[in-house]
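Hey,
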Amino acid sequence: MPRWARRNPAAPTGDAAFDMERRCCAIKQRIELLDAWRTLAIFCMLVYHLLYDLAVFGVLPWGRFYTTPLNLLQQFICWSFILLAGLSARLTRSNLRRGVITLLAGALVMAGSALAGLPILFGILQCLGCSMLLYGLGQKVFDRLHPAMGLLWFAMFWLTRYLTDLGYVESGWLFPLGFIREDFYSADYFGLLPWFFLFLTGSSLGTWLRNTLDAAAAAGRPGPGWTTLRIPALLTWPGRHSLIIYLLHQPVLYGLAWLLFGR
């Protein structure tokens, strides 16, 4: 018998094999509602950055940009991206690869923003990339944690947010961790503290989701209705290509603002 035709005696057969395949399909199937959530965050990001560019060129007064509604919008955007990235980290095994790709994308954004005179030191892509790498390195441990750990991660997020906001430090090399000097400036800044804990909160949501889908598949029934909801492609396509859109949107928006108002 050729080697490729030999059956692994430990491999599942019959109903067991079918159940395993069904569970794998339940996990691999995209949840379109999450893509739509990411699309909404992308749309809000486009609006927010367009207003930012208009403020840079003096069209919109900075006093009208730094307002409570726009600050809340900015928080919704970053919370959405970080929570969704953490949730997705629990549903994939390619976090190290995704982390490297995200860091390379962040390097491109850093280079482009430096040319535009708006330096970025540890922006959201660096934060997400490092979070993916850290999760990937400890995935065997993180994946085994109970979903209720998300409550601890969320509490740690608020605690470290409070601690990093207490004041400045003397060292100029601690900014990746969330501690900055008084003269620190970055057009986009998300230190690992507190944001890695929000990423872990998202991963706990991913654990809950995976357990829910596994239980449904094992019982031979579909997952919760919202996990199989079909949404028009117009509302999900941007969410599936969020990194490319993120890389391209500011050069396009900034370029348009420069053409219209920068001369």
